[in-house]
Hints:
By secondary structure, the protein is of the alpha+beta class. It is built from nine helices and five strands. It is elongated, with a radius of gyration of 27 Å.
Amino acid sequence: xxxxxxxxxxxxxxxxxxxxxxxxxxxxxxxxxxxxxxxxxxxxxxxxxxxxxxxxxxxxxxxxxxxxxxxxxxxxxxxxxxxxxxxxxxxxxxxxxxxxxxxxxxxxxxxxxxxxxxxxxxxxxxxxxxxxxxxxxxxxxxxxxxxxxxxxxxxxxxxxxxxxxxxxxxxxxxxxxxxxxxxxxxxxxxxxxxxxxxxxxxxxxxxxxxxxxxxxxxxxxxxxxxxxxxxxxxxxxxxxxxxxxxxxxxxxxxxxxxxxxxxxxxxxxxxxxxxxxxx
Length: 279
């Protein structure tokens, strides 16, 4: 398969972006494989388009020759015209598919460009161990250790945590047309009774809300921020060692996809399931 210079640049940039951790993650490789797949599909559709163009030109030439003969004999040429119409419909469908593949490819390139840009801006903080940047299920996730942001069992931001979040806010405020979900996570150790928070749900949610509020106070549009608490139910690592539990105590800032990056569900409108869905 021919790999364009543009994709070579993408592969090299992604490889360099991954050197801040332990090499390219599986999610980075999955993003590259998807980009390669789109490039391959686009090349295939271009070939199909060219084949159909050649077939259509040949059929038109044959049709014109036969039509001249049949007209001389007084015969009906409607059958050949119908064949031409079918071939044109196939060609139009191939062109539409090609345009869709090109649109998907452009979206993938735009997402990769955004990811590379953010990783570059966060490079110093990554090297200092203040945050990590990961790709999870096709989304970029900025992961901040809870130990930097909060004291144990508390949701009030520490001075060091505020300093880190100010730097994060400077980067996020420069990314246009993106929403962010701030997600709080804990380990599986339950909070003792009599404290400020009833359980890890409340603690993780309060931490996410406080981080969102601080980002909004430091230049990130509040309209682009959401908060959620996941307690211990989405661990990044097994809760089997003190080190892993420390890694699970974290706050994540997730770049949400734009609406035009989501699958088109308009075909479901009017179906019984969609008609009966709660509003």
